Fold this protein.
Amino acid sequence: MSRVLLLAADKPLPLCDRQCERTKTTTIQDKTFSVTALFGFRVFEHAYYRSAVEDLGYPMKPHQYELELELDVDDLSHLKAYLREHFSPGETFELWNVWVGTDDLSRPTHYCGDLHDFDMETLQQFLFPPYPDGGLGQCRMTVTV
C-alpha cells in the first residue's frame, strides 16, 4: 500500500524541482536519529503509480503529476508560486491524496476552495486528511485560482 500525492489539471504543466537539503530528526524508543537529504516541493512525471491510480477509477483531470511536499512554510510558498505562475484567474486544478494497493474502496473526501485561502492549515488537511469511519485518510481538493 502506498500513498500518492497528485496535481491534476486540464492542461499540461511543466515539471519543477525546488527541493533543498534539510535535516530531519526523529526519536524512536528513546533513540534520536537525524537524516540529511533532499526534501521539499517537486512536481514530476506521474509514471510509477499511474496504472494503480487509474485502477481506482476516480474522476481525475487528464493531466496528472506526482507531487512531493511537506508541511513546511517554504513548500507551501513554492506550491502557491508554481500554481499562480501556471494557472490564470478562474482556472481550477485538483490536488489528490490517495492510497493505492489497498482493498479500501471508499471515495476520498472532496473539498473545494480558492487558492488565496490555501494556507498551512489547508496544506495539513491535504497531507494528513482525517480517517473517516476507520478508512484510509484520502482527499481530493478542487482549487480555483
